[in-house]
Recover the amino acids of this structure.
């Protein structure tokens, strides 16, 4: 950061540490043993789609790359009610490592093509036997995780979110600013 940036109040965003996604399989074991939450086998990357043929070509390329590999999961692209695009990967619920590798590859591909500024978050959903769902959300621009647990239309299960945060505080870089724990209404898998 230069002197001019300090004077004008500009800051550089924290660089994402996509390798943090590889900490999720270990966290999944903790969630299963401590809270009875198991991975659902779905994962998603949320991004703001850029206009233009270059972005569409990049998106088509990584979807084709994943779908052409017989060992890779099924991948679908969806848009939510807020205009964000979700790339949804499906794997066996016991293959959280493979799912995180897929999410890492998607993030890296978009970043390498110059679309890193449009990346918002990655999501790995979990569920328990009672039907409660919680997603581990990786904030791309912060390099941290937070839990989001919907409990009906436009309602959150704050107690479950706090329990997940407390269980994973030693395993994942957890977002400390609660104001950044954004609701992901209608997110795939939740």
């Amino acid at each position: 950061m230069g002197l001019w940036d300090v004077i004008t109040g500009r800051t550089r965003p924290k660089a994402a540490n996509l390798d943090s996604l590889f900490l999720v399989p270990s966290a999944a074991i903790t969630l299963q043993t401590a809270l009875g939450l198991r991975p659902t086998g779905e994962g998603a990357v949320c991004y703001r789609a850029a206009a233009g043929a270059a972005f569409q070509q990049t998106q088509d390329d990584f979807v084709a790359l994943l779908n052409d590999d017989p060992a890779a999961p099924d991948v679908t692209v969806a848009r939510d009610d807020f205009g964000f695009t979700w790339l949804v990967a499906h794997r066996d619920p016991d293959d959280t490592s493979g799912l995180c590798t897929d999410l890492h590859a998607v993030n890296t591909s978009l970043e390498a093509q110059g679309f890193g500024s449009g990346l918002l978050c990655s999501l790995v959903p979990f569920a328990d036997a009672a039907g409660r769902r919680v997603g581990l959300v990786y904030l791309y621009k912060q390099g941290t995780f937070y839990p989001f647990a919907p409990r009906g239309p436009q309602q959150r299960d704050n107690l479950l979110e706090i329990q997940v945060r407390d269980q994973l505080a030693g395993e994942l870089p957890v977002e400390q600013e609660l104001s950044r724990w954004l609701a992901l209404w209608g997110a795939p898998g939740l």
